[in-house]
Amino acid sequence: MNRNQLEDNGRSFIARDNVGPTRAMCNHQHCENVLREIKTAALEAIPHNQHQRKNKKNNIKYPQTTNKYWWDETCQNAVNERKIALKELTKKNTQENITNFRIKRNKATAVIKKTKKQHGEIS
């Protein structure tokens, strides 16, 4: 043990040079303080995206924005159809719903790839 560390019943303490050994800080407590400060700084610095909820009473879906320049209405419609098919599949797991979901999934993938290719995103 070096001169800056003290031990008290199995707990390790670090004595800081600028405060002296009387104000030693527990390693665990110090780590907790550092983590709390990091979390606080991250919450203040990082913007949070809150998803807008669907108005269930009037069945209105709020538009979702995307930063992909190639995304258009056909892509959005294909993805919405895929989501509906997935909900039906999770409600009732039948062979018809499985087949319907696979068709919608493949269609959505094809539409997205086709749109990307038209805009030069993929070759």
TrEMBL record:
<protein>
    <submittedName>
        <fullName>Uncharacterized protein</fullName>
    </submittedName>
</protein>
